[in-house]
Design a protein that fits this description.
Length: about 90
């Protein structure tokens, strides 16, 4: 079964801070998870694991449900009122 890859338009990337936040899960501490923060907002997008790009998009490998919950918990530490979404 092929691994699902999500696409994030390079135009959409411009609305986020240029320096992403990288977090690691307990299950896979070698491959970082990309978290993007919207510029001038307390809103975060958990993109997944970066896996490449094409002409118009960055590609991210989706997280498992367990990993998503773990990363959301890590983002919430110190950011209780943040808006968190997933790619």
């Amino acid at each position: 079964m092929p691994i699902e890859k999500k696409r994030l338009s390079k135009k959409d990337v411009q609305k986020f801070d240029p320096t992403p936040l990288y977090l690691y899960t307990e299950k896979d501490s070698l491959n970082r998870v990309t978290v993007l923060k919207e510029s001038n907002k307390d809103a975060y997008l958990i993109a997944g694991r970066y896996s490449g790009y094409d002409n118009e998009h960055r590609l991210y490998t989706s997280l498992t449900e367990e990993e998503s919950k773990e990363i959301e918990r890590l983002v919430r530490i110190g950011r209780k009122d943040a808006t968190i979404s997933f790619l």
